[in-house]
Design a protein that fits this description.
366 residues, 3 domains, Zinc finger MYND domain-containing protein 12, single chain, 3-stranded antiparallel β-sheet, 2% strand, 3 strands, mainly alpha
Length: 366
Amino acid sequence: MEAEPQDVRTTSKIIPLALPKGTEKLCELCQRRAHLQCNWCRVTFYCDAEHQQADWIGIHQRICQLLLPIRTPTLFSLQRAGRIEIQLKKAELIEICRLVAESKLSEGKHQEAMPAAQFCLRCSIDVHGPSTVQLVPAYLLLADANMGIGNLALVAELLSQAEWAVLKSPECGHAVHHKLHRSLGRLHTATGNLEEALLNFANDIYFASEEYGLDSTVTCRGYFLMAEVFAKQGKMPVARSLYSEVAQTWHSHLAKVLKTHIKNVQKNPNLLLEPSFDKAHLVEVDGMLGTILEFEQNNSRKDSAQIALVAHCLAMLWFLGRDDLKALGFGSTALQASQLIPNHDLTESIQSLLQLVQTEPHPRCD
């Protein structure tokens, strides 16, 4: 559950830091000597206004007031009950930072995700200690943020620490293994070690299928990443086959979500339903399916059935995400492709969706 400061502010007021001689505070982001202080919580410090603003946008506005009890020593906090309460508050902060970082990473905002990922790791170390398996999610978040800005040397270091923590914990669950191998696969893809990338994505798929099932949308993300590697290697038939698996999985999933949505509307036509996907998830899935659609449209031997399937996925996705303009655009693409195939089994479903978009208008997503 995310927490907001009590006051709605667009930025944090900062003041010059005046400290007794011999006392030193460190910047929240870079750990260099601080010269500024947040005037709202007064327990967070920065080397300059640029780092203060980056932290405010990245995470501090969400947790400003939550930092007061854990960074302000009191007699109660020194007692056993107080220490337990502080640990619980830190655990809450870890969860908030994780959710914020994941959301920003899904939207491709890697630089903005950095403060949340950094704080998540520092707070996790405070709670769980160094070199423990509980730190792995934070290591992976920070690695993903750095990968997005091209800091691959630091990514390799962070993933090495995550891998060491996992190796020391035989009881580590499938979900952690799948996320670690996915991150390692992405690193090897970025550095051009494609065979090693394929090996890690294969392990990612195995552990994800053990945790979530073979037909899960989580698992199929591994197929998509593997397909991208095969495409880089020029192995287009293999890439195409894997992209097809991803599209089929998402089509089945979105069709089920859409069917549930229609039933809910039929039960209560006046009910204002929330979007079925949040913004971050929409952007992530749209990017993946958009890549597959572009791959098929640019293929010299176009597969109209596959184009119809993927475009139908995107139409359903954006209808459920409350963007009728995009839903109509992708729906029209899907319909045109399906009509090139006599008696195509998706034509009726696509036409029904286009009719639904026109009769159940939604406000456009920002």
